Amino acid sequence: MTTADPLLGCHVSVAGGFDRAVQRGEKTGCTAIQIFTRNQLRWKSGLLSERQIKDFRHALKTSGVREVCAHGSYLPNLASPDPESRRRSIESVREELCRCGSLGIPFLIVHPGSHLGEGESAGIRRVVSAVDEAFGKDPGSVKLLVETTAGQGTSIGYRFEHLRDIIAAVGPERAGACLDTCHVFAAGYDLKEDEYDRTLERWERIVGLPHLHVIHLNDSKGAVGSRIDRHEHIGEGAIGIEPFARFMRDERFVRIAKIFETPKKKDGADMDRENLKLLVRLSQG
Fold first, then answer.
1. Mean pLDDT by 10 residues, the chain (285 residues)
2. N vs C: which end of the chain shows fewer Cβ within 10 Å?
3. 125 C-beta neighbours (distance < 10 Å), count
4. Cβ-contact 243, 215 below 8 angstroms
């Protein structure tokens, strides 16, 4: 692919080494990839070795993959009112920021967490405070991207206003946003036909396009407003094919990495490759 091709790809496994993730992404045809920098279901992880860092940076430099983002662990709850959960969450995010910095990954995507009945305003304040602590005095070079959520349970992030308030309080030099199509659709922001323009106008007015750094392109198993966070293959869910064509052709998003997180297999087929080919075709009209 050339630099004229869209920044497009999928979440890839780091099994066998971070450099292997780059190789897997390139083999699939990705120009952008998303990885975990650690086991997403464990609180602690070992230190990165100089060899791991060197191999990853070399693999990236010599590949056609032009951008990498990291997805944070699923365990932290930055909005938690529980002191021990809060402490572990902050330490986990701090560790991942450091790992991203060592690997040269510019963005760490996190879910803001759940307020657990304490209220959204209190939850947002705790997220901001936790992020401030995770960064500490030295913000480094990694930007924390708050991901939109589907609105299940007591989660924060299902309204655009939540992301706006978090980014404004943390500061745009350290925080930004990741828009997930499945999540915003499930949260009640329709993307079909004229609603695409209305939803993106609301995003531009409330959050601001300059704060959007990664888009997750996922279809949704649930209907609009269902609050169900279940991803489906591109064009096979309730969102349908047309909104994805619009995202791929929207000039506002040309320089923004688009990552899909759909099921890896279907009837034995490698669906990463199929979803990628489909999105490339959609980008070409």
1. 75 96 97 95 87 98 97 97 97 96 97 97 98 88 97 98 98 97 98 97 98 98 98 98 98 97 82 96 91
2. C
3. 17
4. no
CA distance 199 to 190: 7
Tell me the whole-structure pTM to 2 decimals: 0.96
The residue written with tokens 């079909």 in the block is 192
Q: Which domains does the chain have, with CATH numbers?
A: 8-283 (3.20.20.150)
- Of the candidates 8, 15, 3, 23, the one whose C-alpha atom is nearest the C-alpha of residue 63 is 23
Bridge partners, 265 (sequence order)? 270
Of the candidates 170, 247, 248, 161, the one whose C-alpha atom is nearest the C-alpha of residue 208 is 161
Our CA angle for 224, 230, 234, nearest 5°, is 80
Beta bridge partners of 108: 70, 144
